[in-house]
Structures are given as C-alpha cells and as structure tokens.
Amino acid sequence: MSSSAEPAKRNGILSSLALTLPYVRPWLPRMFVGALSALGATIVALVIPMVMRVLVDGPLAEGNPEQVLPFGLLILGLGIAEAVCILLRRFMVTGPSTMIEATMRNSLYAKLQRLQVSFHDRWQSGQLLSRAVQDLGRLRRFLAFGAIMFTVNMLTIVIGMGVLFYWSWLLGLAFLVINAPILIITYRFERQYWGAARLSQDQTGDLATTVEQSVHGIRVLKAFGRGPHALAGFTTQASDLQETEIRKAKFDATLSAWLTFIPLTSYAVCLFLGVWLVQQEVLTVGQLVAFFATAVVLTFPIESLGFLYAFSIEAASASVRFREVMDADETIHDPEEATTIARPEGRLEFRDVHFRYDDAGPQERDLVDGASLVIVPGETMALIGVTGSGKTTLTALPSRLYDVTQGQVLLDGVDVRDLTLKELRTHIAMAFEDATLFSRSVTDNVLLGSGSDDNPELVEKSLQIAQASFVHDLPEGLETQIGEEGMSLSGGQRQRLALARAVAAEPAVLVLDDPLSALDVETEAQVEDALRTVLASTTALIVAHRPSTVQLADRVALMREGRIDDVGTHSELLARNAHYRYVISSLEEETRKRKGYQ
Ligand SMILES: Nc1ncnc2c1ncn2[C@@H]1O[C@H](COP(=O)(O)OP(=O)(O)OP(=O)(O)O)[C@@H](O)[C@H]1O
C-alpha cells in the first residue's frame, strides 16, 4: 500500500482518537488524576492574580507595607502547590502512555502475524514499519502531553473567561468578541492540516519502504551500479516529504500568528476600555490589574492551541492509520470448531482445487484451475511444469498461506481449513527457494518450526540431512548469530539451513519449493541421498526445477495450465506424455547451461 492508497474516510479528531480507546481505557482513571493535577496547577496559576488584586487594592493602596510579607508567602505557597501539581501530572501520565504505546505495538505485531500472506503482498513494509514505530510514538507523546495539555488549556480558557467576566463583564465581553474569530480560523486550519498530516505520515511510510528495499537489495544496486539512481529516487521522495512538512509548518505558523495577534489586539482594546472604566469609577485599579493578570495567564493556553491542535490532528491521523491495519480482515483464521488429527499419516489430497490471486483480472482464468492430486503417506511427489504454471502457488495452499478459492485441500481426509492453523502448520512444514533466515543463532533458526528451543540432537540430525554441517566452522558454531536474513551466508548455505529448519519440524508432510536450486550438483545429490532417508517416513511434495530432483521422487505430477495434467513415475510419463518430455528437456537444457557456468 502506498501513499496513494485510499486512506480511511476522514473522521473528526475526537472520533479518530476514540479508536485508541480500547487501549487507553484501563489507564483512564490514572490519566484522569493526571488531568486533574494539571487542572489544579492551572487553577493555582489563576488564583495568584486574585491574591495580587487584594494586595494592590488593600495593603499597597492603604500604605501598609508590613502586610506585604504574608501575601508574598501565600504567593510562594501557591507557586509550590503549582509545581507539585505539575510533578503529579507527569508521574500519573508518563507510565500509562508508555504502557499504552507498548500494548498497541504488541497488538499491531500480533495482528501482522495473524494476517494472511495476501495482506502482506499488498502492503508495503515501510507503511507497516512507520505505523508500528512512528505513529505509535506520536500517539504516546500525545497521550502523555498533548491530550492532557489540550484538555487543561481548553478548561483554563473557559474558566479564565469566567474569571474575566467576574472582574468586569464589559471587559470580558470585549475580550470574548475580539477573540471569537479564532474559532473560524481553527476550523479552517483543521481542514487543511488534516490532509497534510496524513500525507506526511504516508510519505514517511513510503520513504521507510525505499530505505528498507535498498538496504535489502544493496548487493543488486551495487552490482548494477544503480546506487546513484536509487539515491535520485530517494531524494525525490524525501523532498516530497519535505514539501509536505513545509506546507504543514506554513499552516501551523499561520494559525500561531493569528493566535498571537488576536489576543494581543484584544489586550490593547481591553486596556483602553479598562482605563476608561477606571476613570469612570466603574472599575478599581485592583480589578483592572487582576483582569490583566488573568488575561496574561490565558495567553499561553490560547497561543499553545495552535501547536496542540496540530498535535491532536497528527495523533488522530496516526490513530486512523493504526486502525487501518488492525481492522484489516483476517481471511485466513482458525475454524470456529476445529478438528484435530491426533496421529497424522500424511495423506495429502488436492480435490478440484481452484485459486486466483486477488489482483487477477475478471477475464483471466483461475491460476490453479481445477487441480486434483493425491499423495499417499510416505510418498515423494515431484511437481513440475513450465515456468509460471502455478507450481509455487499450489504448494502454498496445503499450509494455508493462501486459501483455495474453490475445492479442497485435505490432510488425512480432513479439510485443512478445519484444523487450527497452529496444528496444521505442525503437520505441514515448508522450505522455499528463497530461503529466509532470521537474525538469530543457527540453532534458533533450525528449531524455529520444531516447537522446542533446545534440542541439540534434533538440530544435529537436521543439519546432517540438509548437508549443512558447514555451520560448525562458523566463528561460534551453532551459536553464531546469522546476519540479517542470512546475508552473511551463501545462497546455497542459506537454502540448506532453511531445509534443515523444515526437516527439524518433523512434519507429516514436507513441502519443498525448489529448495535446492542454489546448490551445486554434487551437494544436491548428497542432500537428496540424505533426504531419501527422511522422506521414507514423510510425505513430500517437491517443486522440481532439475531432472535430478525428479528422479528422487516416487512419482511426478505434471502441472499444466492450472491443472494436474498427468501423474506417474518419471519413466511412465517420459514414455506417454509429450508435454512432460518437453518440460524435462527444458529442465535438462537449463541444468546444462547452469553447469556450463559453474
Ligand atoms: N503474490 C502474488 N500475487 C499475484 N500474482 C502472483 C503472486 N505470486 C505469483 N503470482 C503469479 O502467478 C503466476 C504463477 O506463479 P507461480 O510462482 O506459482 O508459478 P511457478 O510455476 O512456480 O513458476 P516458476 O517455475 O517460475 O517458479 C505467475 O504469473 C505470477 O505472476
């Protein structure tokens, strides 16, 4: 999903922020105390002018300087009370906001784990990364500071207005009328700023995707000398983001200017009016001082509205972006009433299976278009077909990386959709051509699918079968941390480790999507020999791109135009199927070419 993807319909700020309520709710009492403390601090700040009025109209006007000390002490006490309230606010709010952020981040990560592969096919990694890191950080800061200050400042303004009216309703009214246009200005600001805030967050996600992709593909970029080209693309994206940030800053600056200018204008008008009222003896000097002391207290809350309003909009937009992921449909999930297979035998059946990707055009035929195939327990079935015939796609269906769009995949006669995903994936393990490893130790990588964290015998056995004993020569043996995605290993080494991982899962069914493609022919033969011993008890479906892999199999299934065209032993198919002979001869041709290169 890119920045051009349709963002969720724009809600109001409050309803967007309310999307985080399930995570905020447990902490509301504490945050409420925090808000009360902040309000306490503000009220204390508002009381100080009142004390000053009494001081000015009383002891100072009457010429009693000895009474100034108690007033001074009172103001000092009020100052201390204000500081304590501010401390309490921080204490009450900081912990919850970090807890909320952590809970939301964990929920997001858990959701990403649950979401089907087709979701990840559609969404850019940077968009997910920026939501998990940047948006949630923004929400935390808003909850810890913005939300409380916004509420308190609004309350301060309302209470302060009341106090201004108390000192002089005429001055209060003048103050209110002159400041009223702020409402219209902030309304316009919200409309402009919302779009820019969302755009900037999406562009940040796009930028993160670009960084991620270029780091991931750094070898390709370097090998093809495309670094400068990638940099040019990145620079364009970065300057798009910069432009959006400048637009935001302009909106922000315009609002702040109005929020400074309008209250100052109102002070000037109120000053003239106030002096005149004092001359008319409608107001005392003390009341006028108190009015202005109160109005000064309101200066910061009014000015800060611009910044806090922008902050709220950004947090609201971040909250919408978070929910867009959280609300994504989980199309592949556990059944309501799951069946279980206590002792799987490993009979795998594709029964009239159809599948098409979400982005397939309506006129296109199904990519898997009525495939039927039975693999009996302990059998090794090779799957071959011309490139693009749908072999990889078919192998993704048994473990429900994608769900069939019609038909059934059955394990021991049970529809795979009737098992929990956890159980299904303990029965069926996969190894892919593109071997993905994690930045963890060799042991952790091998045991990833085994359900055990510590099983040295199993690790050793699996490594032997996958001909991956090279790991013992790594600097720290099995405890060596593998670089990100196994980048520190060769392609063939990575594939062998991924194969060891699939073997260590000790599944009833092993699905191997051409996991030996990066191996030299000799190593492949050794792995195949070792696999034969394992596969004797395991049902296996192996996508084959080399004739030697086909010979490992008990039978071969030929895939053609989305169907299983023929099934038989290698020699049977060679004898009776012209298309099979064509596919095999192209595989032989490819293998010859590859050998020529080696
Ligand atoms: N995630 C996806 N979303 C949309 N289309 C896809 C996706 N993955 C594969 N395809 C399309 O499905 C078709 C079949 O791909 P698939 O990888 O299953 O074929 P294959 O027989 O394994 O090919 P090869 O032998 O080259 O590995 C291709 O045309 C491909 O473009």
TrEMBL record:
GO terms for molecular function: ABC-type oligopeptide transporter activity; ATP binding; ATP hydrolysis activity. GO terms for cellular component: plasma membrane. Keywords: ATP-binding, Cell inner membrane, Cell membrane, Membrane, Nucleotide-binding, Transmembrane, Transmembrane helix, Transport. It is found in: Cell inner membrane. Signal peptide: none annotated. InterPro entries: AAA+_ATPase, ABC1_TM_dom, ABC1_TM_sf, ABC_transporter-like_ATP-bd, ABC_transporter-like_CS, P-loop_NTPase, Type_1_exporter. SUPFAM superfamilies: ABC transporter transmembrane region, P-loop containing nucleoside triphosphate hydrolases. It is a multi-pass membrane protein. Residues 32-314 form the ABC transmembrane type-1 domain. The chain crosses the membrane at residues 32-56, 68-88, 142-163, 169-189, 255-277, 289-311. Residues 348-586 form the ABC transporter domain. SMART domains: AAA (SM00382). It comes from the Bacteria. Belongs to the ABC transporter superfamily. Siderophore-Fe(3+) uptake transporter (SIUT) (TC 3.A.1.21) family. This is Methionine ABC transporter ATP-binding protein. It comes from Agrococcus casei LMG 22410. The lineage of its organism: Bacteria, Bacillati, Actinomycetota, Actinomycetes, Micrococcales.
